[in-house]
LPS biosynthesis protein
Amino acid sequence: MRAITDIKEMQHIALDVLIYLDKVCSKYGLKYFIVDGTLLGAVRHKGFIPWDDDIDVWMPRADYDRLADVIRQDGEKKYKFCTPQNTKKFIYPFGKLIDVRTGLLDDTSAKCEIGVHIDVFPYDGLPGDSEPEYRKFAKRCVYLAEQRYPAFTTWKQAKERTDKGHFYFAKWVMRKVIGGYNIVKIIDWYARKHANTYPRFICCLPAEYKYDQIMDASIADNLTELEFEGHKFKAPADYDTYLKKLYGDYMQLPPEENRQPHARKAWWK
């Protein structure tokens, strides 16, 4: 086992995973596109944000559900698509495409060992035809998603948060009784149950996104290719609207004190 401590090495491994995803999606007719900090990095840096090793993509729910089988069919043993449906004690309500030669622990008490990966988020159509309707539904999904991480915190961590009052502690107990893994299943079930096939708006409902991640469906319909670390990947053609909604003046660098990498441990097996 060898520790992976250099962010450049982490970025290189994650980039290879994205290259594979692009290849397998092209081969089997699946749709994906880069989002969040990955899209921002492509536009502002033509690659990774220097202090970030995350890669995020969105996929339509139907293609997301096919991805694990497609990767097995492709015969590539180096990668595995992990989801709550196919991986025991998986604490995330969305998928991670993992380099199985590596191990990784996020900064969480759940100790869910995965590997260096890219996050693959399924997006769904929001039900309803008006803003109040889809916001009401999205609010419920956001609330459910926010319960996930606290359900995996420890008794010690909960006691440290009692400065917020007994109400916080009572909510922690309730989440522990329900169980973090059950919350993950509830999030997935709720998102699937109400998905709209022909929506005006889309969102990645299982993630802890706020309302700024509710996008017009045309964002996913009209794609282009953007350069990222010397390679071309699918991205929203109207990336300007997307990035302004998330980040405002997205070409402006954040203060230096906010340029921090993720706190996690990774290694070669």
